[in-house]
């Protein structure tokens, strides 16, 4: 035991860091199909070494792993993924992206946070739990790991539906979470849904001389008109019917959002934001409870040095919608089509990209959610922050639908973690505390099942 009365986890933490170093070195980029079977093999070996029975199933892009160990009335299902985003642009990394590098208290590398760091910190905590219980576990732990999350998890919903009986659990621990700069744990009980689309417009078989702009319409003007019609200057989506199905937040949701600290200052500072949307007072409501439309990229015509007087033949815009319960992704696409047609933009084609994700939100009063909150306060020594929903998206809804259990997210991310960007990182402090949290959270769930 340490002086504070907490168990000494230094050996487990160091072993976890070694595991992270090995996994970061594996370039498991799902968008490019790199090293996915090999990384699944490495994850399988780590789990089997801790007594898990691991079943492997083919996915559309990468293997799906289902592991199981332990016994007890309470069953915890943990969800993680072993794939990562591409490292591009490589020149913006300060250190090699697939080499775990420690600098100024941060661990840098692709996957250091999302999601290999999350996985190995939990595995290190489980090792400590087994040691505490003489090699056993006080609860049943199921672990689902996939290698397709960064490309929209195309296999996951069907897999969950097909294997629902085998994956039944009393609670699901989600694959991510965050810690504030002050060291306060932030838990999330939901995710927004997402629809990724491309708007395309073509007016000719090839580019034309720009003088013909007097008699030929311009696809970039058409697309600009389309994009400008989708939201107002405050960010409010203006597609008719878009907000009709939004589920009003519960009183508990509203109270939780009202208790969230700050007004987004950490986010704006970390990314040097110059144009925040909304007022400071509605920052958390917009981020957690409000649907939003984003323009991801606007493409077409000439973008090189100097001028090229050309009228482009075609162009495209990539957009995404972030949805809240009970918005239906397919209905959103239908509403968008109707809206564009009404604007005289029937020639603007809508192309659906990747898999849609439904929005999901757990009941904040559920005992599983409350146990996660209580343990977080115990481990971190500060009141936990409970957020009804992350502003991000992921395949949480199928878990709630098919596993039939509440979901909570708590992990080791940080506001300056550069997830999906160059110099992705996790604070070593947060990794170490994440190991301790994994130990005590699973211990508490095991004790709860005995009561």
UniProtKB/TrEMBL annotation:
The keyword Amino-acid biosynthesis does not apply. The keyword Metal-binding applies. Residues 190-344 form the Peptidase M20 dimerisation domain. It comes from the Bacteria. Keywords: Hydrolase, Metal-binding, Protease. Pfam families: M20_dimer, Peptidase_M20. InterPro entries: Cyt/Met_Dipeptidase, Peptidase_M20, Peptidase_M20_dimer. This is M20/M25/M40 family metallo-hydrolase. It comes from Deinococcus arenicola.
